[in-house]
Amino acid sequence: MSPSVVLSLLVHRGPDAGRWFPLPTGEPQLIGRSSEALPLRDRRISRRHAELTPDGDAWVLRDLRSRNGTRIEGRMLHGPTRIAVGDRFICGDSEFEVVSGRPDGDAAGLVDGAIAPAESDAERLIAAGRAVAGLSHSIKNILQAMRGGADAIELAIARNDLESARAGWPILARNLDRIHTLALNLLAFAHDRPLDREPTLLPPLLREVAELLGPAAARRRATIEVEFEPNLPEPSIDLGAVHQALMNLLINAIDAVPEQTGRVVLAARRGDPGEVVLQVEDNGPGLPESVRDRPFEPFVSTKGQRGTGLGLAVTNRIAIRHGGELRAISPDGGGTRMELRLPIEGDDASDRTRGPESVPETDLGLEF
């Protein structure tokens, strides 16, 4: 791509969705709330967030040490990255696409300020239709299983057969958990409410999530172990959102591990400077090759008819909205490790710790 080609930035998501901004030929362009050329309204974008710079036959995107970071292809931008027409990147809650042409009608795919229908748009609509159909199928399966469990319990009660009632209850309870999780993920996927951040102690959060999913693990005769480093910083997070993210990761891990020998480890540790890592590791078969390159894509699931493909997509969105990152690590030998990496906000974040300095390196291991 030559720098003489006129480019524009098209906003796909965020407060400025549907708007575009021309990029002057051969001139660096600041992306941020202090930019006169790009008067953005997204409050999660820093005043000087990122910069697009022409470089020979390419354009280079670099983050300007923004508060929430810049992402491209689902990964945090850590250095200058070359981009081309069609590439998308995320700053704050806004998603941008580099398009060729001017917004005066010369731009391919742009008509009077709107996105013109294109083959890729049609394909996305078809994919969305298939996703809705898949969700409907998943909901039907869950409801049928719930109906079967309820019928078994009802029959057992009529016969005053407590043992049969006990046998039917796990079916009902398991599918109540599934429909509850699906409803929460659908709400989170359809609507991003503002984050309500506050400094949060991580050990109690991990314990609570493990306790809530202890019965689900027990039904598979699997164990959940909780581990965390001492004196962890208190990241400024939306407790409800991160709680949901951990629930999603832990549910996936419990579903993946083998019965009787399944083991899941839920851990919190320090990551790279300025971040903490919430980690869920299991001894299941690992991610199939078919989804390793797109584990966070909506409606992509490895669970067949039992899965909706929303859990990881929602968890990834929660990570991004916190300025963090979700990573999936699945060695060829089996097992999967999911890492929810969250930034520690504030200059004094490293000093906001609790607990004695003499606590051992890993001081807790709970089993359920």
Write the SSE topology.
Layout lengths: L6 E7 L6 E4 L5 E3 L18 E6 L2 E6 L6 E3 L2 E2 L4 E3 L4 E4 L2 E7 L9 E2 L2 E2 L3 H40 L3 H29 L6 E3 L2 H11 L1 H6 L3 E6 L7 E3 H18 L6 E8 L4 E8 L28 H11 L3 E5 L6 E8 L25
Parallel strand pairs: 14-16
Antiparallel strand pairs: 1-2, 1-10, 3-4, 4-5, 5-8, 6-7, 6-9, 9-10, 11-12, 13-15, 16-17, 17-19, 18-19
Helix pairs in contact: 1-2, 2-6, 3-5, 5-6
The main pleated sheet reads as: 6 strands, antiparallel
User: Could you tell me how far the N terminus lies from the C terminus, measured between alpha carbons in angstroms?
Assistant: 57 Å
Contiguous helical run count: 6
Order of helices and strands: EEEEEEEEEEEEHHEHHEEHEEHEE
Give the helix proportion (percent range): 25-40%
Q: Largest sheet, order of strands side by side?
A: 2-1-10-9-6-7
Mean pLDDT: 75
| Beta-strand proportion | 15-25%
Morphology: elongated
Rg:
24 Å
Structural class: alpha+beta
What does this structure look like?
The protein has 368 residues and is an alpha+beta fold. Helices cover 31% and strands 24% of the residues. The protein contains six helices and 19 strands. The chain has helices at 119-158, 162-190, 202-212, 214-219, 239-256, 311-321; strands spanning 7-13, 20-23, 29-31, 50-55, 58-63, 70-72, 75-76, 81-83, 88-91, 94-100, 110-111, 114-115, 197-199, 223-228, 236-238, 263-270, 275-282, 325-329, 336-343. It has a six-stranded antiparallel β-sheet, with no helix packed on it. It has a five-stranded mixed β-sheet with strand order 14-16-17-19-18. Strands 3-4-5-8 form a four-stranded antiparallel β-sheet, with no helix packed on it. A hairpin with a 2-residue loop joins strand 9 (88-91) and strand 10. Helix 1 runs antiparallel to helix 2. It is elongated, with a radius of gyration of 24 Å. Mean pLDDT is 75; it is low at 104-121, 303-307 and 346-368.
